[in-house]
Each structure stands twice: as structure tokens, then as C-alpha cells.
Amino acid sequence: MTVYFIGAGPGAADLITVRGARTLAACGVCLYAGSLVPRELLAECPPGARLVDTAQLDLDEITAELLRAHREGQDVARLHSGDPSVFSAVAEQMRRLDAAGVPYEVVPGVPAFAAAAASLKRELTVPTVGQTVILTRVAHRATAMPEGEDLATLGRSGALIVLHLAARYADRVVEELLPHYGADCPAAVVAYASRPEELIIRGTLDDIAGKIKDAGVLRTAVIMVGRTLGAEQFRDSHLYSPDRERHTC
């Protein structure tokens, strides 16, 4: 058997990849985070599949379910919201499977920041304005941030910063980024990106924290801060420039 870590996408059921949907349809066991993964996706599971909501399970209990499926010879679809490569807690599950000798594969998905950018109708990398995107979070009761990855340090780059799991700490985000980006720097929040209840908040570092509080946004949101969010006057990309040398095969 094989465990497939599948990126379920940011929320909309039709944003799972074709490969992800096909893999899901072929697995006799599906473990999913019920608080984040759209239940409509479970309709893709084959009839009679064992469905396990992991929202209330700890790592040991999740691992036990994966090993049980392995003993029974069942392929497992392990559905994670967004893309497994970012803030998915997949690494420790793969480490457990490595120790147990259980094979696994990873099927990428649409990450939340990509869905948020689509909702904002923005390219996050704009010529001459910004070519770097930093994906990060803030330290709170969860895992501490490694040394040198605090917002005050990352903010020195001036790059567009995308913050996951940070909506309830908006005041802190603003405080640490303000010295580097300035009060007029564009900022945006997308909550429940791609879902029917999606909420978009636009502003600047000067007012975004207040707008987040007024809207009552606490979770399932992405905060973006950077000049590319408001860029209008910028040079066209060299990619399609008539001055770019092109060779035909």
C-alpha cells in the first residue's frame, strides 16, 4: 500500500488537482482534516471507503490509522488543506512513515497564498517593484520561530510578505513591519480564499489591523504586505519584450 499526501487546495472543492482527485478516487482509506478540507471532496472517495476525520486526533492516533491501513493493504489518501509543502505538518508524518517502512507519495495542491492572490487579482512579483515573496507566520502559542526569522528581521528585505495563521495578531504584524515598509504600504487580507464566504480586506499598514478587527477575522486568513499589491506604474516584463532575442527551432 501507499500513503498519498494530497493537497486539497485552499477551500473550493474544484481547486484540487486532477491528479489529486484521481488519487483520492482510488484509495480505500481517506484521512482528512474536517475543520479545513471541504466535505464535498469526500464524494470523490470510492464507495465503502473508510473516512477518518483527523481534526481531533493527535500525531500518534493519525500514525496508528496509517499503519492500520498498511497492515490491511489499503492505499490511503491523506488530505491536507492547501499544498503539503507549506505549513501542513506533513514532515513529522513522513518521518513516522519512514521509521515504519511505509511508502508514501506527495501530490501537490493549490496553496492558500495563490488563491488569495487570485482573489486580489494581483501578481505578487512585479518587474522593478518586487521579485521576492516571503511565506512565513508569527510566533505565538504554537511552535517558536527559528532565530533570524522574526518579522522584524524578515521585514528588512522589503519583499512582499505573506503571513499564514496571523490574523489574530495583526497589531503585532503591523508593529514589526511598520519601520521597514512605512504606513502607506499596501496590505490585504483574504479570509476563506476561494470559498463562498470569502472575505477580502484591503488597506495599508496604517489601517489594516483595525479593519481586520472590525471584520472579526480570526482564522483561515492570509495577510499580505508589500508594494507589489499596489503597483500600477512599472516596466513591462522582459519575457514578452519585442527587444528580447527569440530563436525558433
UniProtKB/TrEMBL annotation:
InterPro entries: 4pyrrol_Mease (IPR000878), 4pyrrol_Methylase_sf (IPR035996), 4pyrrole_Mease_sub1 (IPR014777), 4pyrrole_Mease_sub2 (IPR014776), Cbl_synth_CobM/CibF (IPR006362), Siro_Cobalamin_biosynth (IPR050161), Uropor_MeTrfase_CS (IPR003043). Pfam families: TP_methylase. Pathway: Cofactor biosynthesis; adenosylcobalamin biosynthesis. GO terms for molecular function: precorrin-4 C11-methyltransferase activity. Keywords: Cobalamin biosynthesis, Methyltransferase, S-adenosyl-L-methionine, Transferase. One of its GO terms (biological process) is methylation. It comes from the Bacteria. Residues 2-208 form the Tetrapyrrole methylase domain. NCBIfam families: cobM_cbiF. Belongs to the precorrin methyltransferase family. This is Precorrin-4/cobalt-precorrin-4 C11-methyltransferase. It comes from Streptomyces prasinopilosus.
